[in-house]
C-alpha cells in the first residue's frame, strides 16, 4: 500500500494560477474530501493528479514511483483510478461487456506488474463471476444485456463507477459522483464508497459539494480556495474553521 503525494503541484492558464503549489499526501485506508467554492481548482487538481492535464510545476508520487511524467494511461496502470463522466464507457457494447472489458484490463495490468494472478484470471468463469459481482454491487444486474447507449443517465454514471471498481485501483478518485443522480441512484453510489472505505486499504479522494455527504464519509477534509490549499484536518475542525465558514459555506457572511 502506497501513499499518494503531490508536491508543489501547480498549473497556470495564461496569467491565471488555477492550482497553486499544492503539497499534500493521502494515506491508504483514508477518505479525503476536497471541498472549496466553484472555480477553486478541485477538478483541475484531480486532472493534474490523474494526468489529464500537464502540470506547470510540481510532482505526483504513488509510493516510490514518480508519476509526474506519465500520461493518464500510465498513471491508471500504476494504480490511480478515476471515475470519468461517461468518457470511459463503450456505448455500443452492453453493460456486461463494458464491465468484462474493465475486469480483463485489470487482469492484463496485473500481468504487467508481474503479479501471480494468472491461475485465477485465466479462468473464464472467474472473470464472469467478478463482472457479475460488480454488477450486483452497483444494482445493474437486471440491465446487463442492455446497450450502454440506451441506459438512462443515472445508470450510465453507476456503470462508470462499476468500471472503476473492476480496475481495482489503489487510489479511487471521485469527482461529484452523485451529481445528476436521482434519489434512488445516489444511495447506491454512496453505499459503494462506504464499502470501499470500510475495506481500509484504499486511498479515496472525493470532490463533493454536498456537506452532509462529506460529513458522513470523510476522515479528513482539505479545502482549496483560489487554487491554494487553505485548510487541512479532521472534518469537525475544518468545517468549523473560519475559512470554511466564510469562504465556502458563506455562514459568516450571512450571519453578518
Ligand atoms: N483548461 C483550462 N483552461 C483555462 N482555465 C481553466 C481550465 N481548466 C480550469 N480552468 C480554470 O481554473 C479554475 C479552477 O477550475 P476548476 O474546474 O478546477 O474548479 P472547481 O473547484 O472544480 O469548480 P467547481 O466546483 O465549479 O467544479 C477556474 O477559474 C477555471 O475557469
TrEMBL record:
It comes from the Bacteria. One of its GO terms (molecular function) is ATP binding. Pfam families: ABC_tran, BCA_ABC_TP_C. Gene3D superfamilies: P-loop containing nucleotide triphosphate hydrolases. The keyword Nucleotide-binding applies. InterPro entries: AAA+_ATPase, ABC_AA/LPS_Transport, ABC_transporter-like_ATP-bd, BCA_ABC_TP_C, P-loop_NTPase. This is ATP-binding cassette domain-containing protein. The lineage of its organism: Bacteria, Pseudomonadati, Pseudomonadota, Betaproteobacteria, Burkholderiales.
